[in-house]
Each structure stands twice: as structure tokens, then as C-alpha cells.
Amino acid sequence: MTLTDHHAMARPLGALLSAAIAFMIAGAAIAVPAGLTLNPDDTAGTLAAVDDRVGLHLLELGLDVIGWLALACAGLVMAVIAAAAGRFTGLVAAGLLALAGAAGLLHDAGNLAVTQLAGGPAEPSVAAAEAVLLTAKWTVNLAGLLWVAATVASAAAQAKRLRWAGAAAAVSGLAAVAVPWTAGTSGPSPELEQVGYLLHLPVMAWWAVLGWRHLRPGPPAAS
Fold first, then answer.
1. pLDDT tens profile 158-212
2. pTM here?
3. CA neighbor of 99 nearest in space, from 154, 158, 152, 144
4. Spatial CA neighbour of 219 closest among 81, 70, 75, 18
5. In a domain, 103, yes or no
6. Is residue 28 in a domain?
7. 142 is in which domain, residue-wise?
8. Does any domain span residue 46?
9. For the purposes of burial, counting CB atoms within 10 Å of the CB of 175, is it exposed (0-12), middle (13-18) or buried (19 or more)?
10. Transmembrane residues, as ranges (predicted)?
11. What CA–CA distance (Å, rounded) separates 195 from 197?
């Protein structure tokens, strides 16, 4: 891959990273105020909320699906750039990022299944939905862990300030991933779950900055 080819691929990578973050935040901005965060601690209430606001539920999930898909595609583009440049750490980061995107899509698949369960008979639907929601929550926890690992691997190849910012974001993201593990068999409360999502925001912000650096004119950032 020539330098020109590298620059040509940097812009799509930046666009994908920026789109991933933007769509995920847009989905969360709909879900949180509408009470559609799909908490397995109150499965019956979750199903009722989905049934009452099915349009909003599908809209926010659609945005989230696009976000995770863009993240997975960004990982694949990163892999091409890193492989052509012979950067092993970049290739590792790309693989982890693509896996994070795939895990996020599986998480959304579970949440989409809840849509149909919300319209079914009460008792069987609640039992099935609780299992689906728990699986979806742990899948997004895995996606977060993979995303943190991708941040560490990618930050290693960046300039000093961006590298240290990536390390700080990874620490915050790791704390977010650890939240459900500290809750025992009862699982995290809705409030604690929201804290976990807030702790993951620095990771998203770091990748948004990386996406912007790939979009701007001039030599692209390391991938």
C-alpha cells in the first residue's frame, strides 16, 4: 500500500469511527430518557415499557445497530491499513475492535428479541425475556472489554499525549466493565449500571478523537 493509498483509507476509517460513536450516543439519548435501558431486574416493567414505546425502542436499537456495525467495519479497515504497514500492534487493535463491534451486534440481537416477547403472554414472556436480557447485558460487557483492549493496543502506537489519554480512558473503561462483576448474583442495580455506562464514555471519546484525526487533512494518525 502506497502512502497515497494509506491516506485514502484513513478518511473512511475516520468516518466509520465518528459514525459509530455518533449513532451509539444518539441511541442512548433516546433510550435513557424514555426508560428503555432494558433492565433485567424488572423484566415485567421492561416488557411493558417496550410494548408502550415500541417505535422508540426500535428506533434507538436501529441507531445502536448502525453504531456497532460501523465499529466492526472500522476494525476491518484498520486491519487492512495495519497489515499493509506491517504494524502488529495495529493489527491486534483492529481485530479487537472488530470483535467488539460483533459482540455489540449480538447484544442488540438479544434486545431486538425482547421486542417480540413484549407482545406475548405475560408469564412465559417474562421468564424468557429475563434470560435474553441477562445474556444481552453480559454480551455488551464483553464488547466493552474488547473495546478497552483495543484502546490499549491502539494507544501504544500513538503520540505521547494521545497515548496517555488512551491509557486513562482504558482505566475508566475497565472500571466500567468491572461493575457487573462486583454485584454478585443479584446483578448491578439500574443506577450502578448507568454508572458503568458513564465510565465507558472516555473510551468512546478517545476513539472519536482518533476518528477526527483520520478525517482531518494531513498525515493520518497511526492505526
1. 988 999 999 999 999 999 999 888 877 667 777 788 888 899 999 999 999 999 9
2. 0.90
3. 144
4. 81
5. yes
6. yes
7. 3-154+207-215
8. yes
9. middle
10. 65-84, 91-107, 138-157, 164-183, 195-215
11. 5
